[in-house]
Amino acid sequence: QVQLVESGGGLVQAGGSLRLSCAASGRTFRTYAINWFRQAPGKEREFVAVISSSGDSTYYADSVKGRFTISRDNAKNTVYLQMNSLKPEDTAVYLCATQREGKYIHWGQGTQVTVSS
After folding, report:
1. Is 6 in contact with 29 (CB distance < 8 Å)?
2. Dihedral angle at the C-alpha atoms of 71, 75, 76, 81, nearest 10 degrees?
3. Chain-centre distance of CA 74, in angstroms?
4. What would the pLDDT profile of 66-79 be if each residue is shown by its tens digit?
């Protein structure tokens, strides 16, 4: 069983940066790809980024490409989301999820990111 805990959210001005962490328990963490999603009030959950189990491959939503970077440290059972040049439209609850064979299996509770204009 894998449990995920997100942290690092907060309030930041437009143009600022935050680094989110997704810390996992469980020995099998390194066997999963990890996704970041976000959900703003009144909107559907939106894919942000994904990193492969080894960390060799990443993919981003067009809305964050060039501004966000996903990375992982399997020795620390942690995935990171570095967010730069933040915009008010990035305001949302950010969640991480494990993925295997196309299915999202474990989810964290989320961390709030608020970007002021």
Report:
1. no
2. 0
3. 15
4. 999 999 999 999 99
